[in-house]
Fold this protein.
Amino acid sequence: MVKYNLNVSAQQPSFCFVPVASALDIGKGVTALTKADYLTPYVGALPPSGSKSSPFTGGYTTAFSVVTGSANNNEAHIALTNRNGDWIYDQIIGKPISSNCTMFCGYNSIAIDGATQFCGSSDYTLTGTLPPAANTSISWYSYPSGITFSPSNAVATTASGTVGSTTLTATMMVTEADGEVCGTAYPQLQVIAGPLPISMTSTAGTCSGNTQTWSLVMNPSAYGTNWNWTVGSLGSNSSIYILNPGSSSTFVDVTGGGTVNLTYKDICGGSHNDGVTVYSSCHSSNTYLITPNPANSQITLTTSNSQNNAAKNEKVSPPIATIYAIKITDQLGVTRKSLNFGSGVVSTQIPVSDLPPGSYFITIFDGTKWNSQVFLIQR
C-alpha cells in the first residue's frame, strides 16, 4: 500500500496511480462517504478538496472515464487486490460468495416480521429501511422445503404448510435507478410450521405396601389440550388408579402392572395417542424378585423372602412363598409362556431369548392367589 508523503517519479506520470479510490483516503477517515464518493473519478490534476480531500497530491488517477479539462487521465483499469483476487478464485472453482451490500445504498436493518409458530398458515412482512419496490426483486423460500408462499415475490406474503422446524428466507436483490445492482440481502426467521412437540416423562415414586405411585407428566403442558388418561391393559391381580385423568400431569397408583393410555389435542387441533407401561416394584414378604430386569435372554424368578432368610441365616423363618405356576403375557394380553411346578419351587430360570424386546407381565401362582409383576426385555 502507498503511504503518505511519498514522491513518485516515473517516465509516464499519468500511469502512476493508486489502484482503488478508497486507497486515496478520501475524507481522511473522519468524513462519511457516499456511494457517489466511491464512484467519483479522482485525478492528480483536479484533486478533491474540502472535507473530502486526500493526503495524496499528484501522480495518481482513479478515472473511470475521461474528465473534461484534465490532461492526466488513464484508460479504464482493473485493480487486483487480495479481496477481489479471492473472489475471482472462488468464482472459478464454483464457490460463489453472496454478499449483502445494501447498506451502502441506505437500506438497513431488513428483517422478517411474523409469528415464530403457526398452524396451517401465517402472514410475514419485510421490515426496515426498504428500497423502492420498482428497484427490488424478492423471492421467498424455506429450508427445509415444504412451505408455500403467496405471493412469493412481494414484501408481504402468506406462508402455508406443516413441516416442523424450518427457516424462512427472503432473497432481496436491490438495483439502483441507474441499473446497477447495489447488493442482495437475505433476511431470515426460524419458525415452527405446525404443532409444537410435547414429550412424556414417567417416574416411579414411593411405595405403600405393594402399591407404587408413578408420576406421569406431559411437557410443555401449554402445547396441548383435552388431556384424557385411561387405564389400558392390566396384569392378573393388578390395579391402576389415575388421580387426575383430565390433567396434563397425574399421579398413578399401581399394584402389579399394566399400561396407561393418553389422548390429547395439540395446539393446532390435531389428535394424538400416547401411553406408558407402569408397574410396582414394591412387594411384601411373600412376593418375588425378577433378575436381571431388564433382561436379555434369561430371567431368574426367586421368592424374595427365601433370599432374605438365606441372607439372615435365620433359624426360625416365616413361611416361604412357593411358585406353583407361571404365565408370561405381552401387552396385548397374549400368553407367551406357561409353566407348572407340581410340588412347587422357590426359584426358577426362564429363557426369554425367543421373545422380542418390550414389556411383559409375569403372573405367579403361590398356591392360593396369583401375583403379577412387570419385566422388560432389552437388546
About this structure: The first strand starts at residue 111 and ends at 113. The chain has four domains: 1-97, 102-193, 199-279, 288-377. Helices lie at 35-39, 82-92, 304-312.
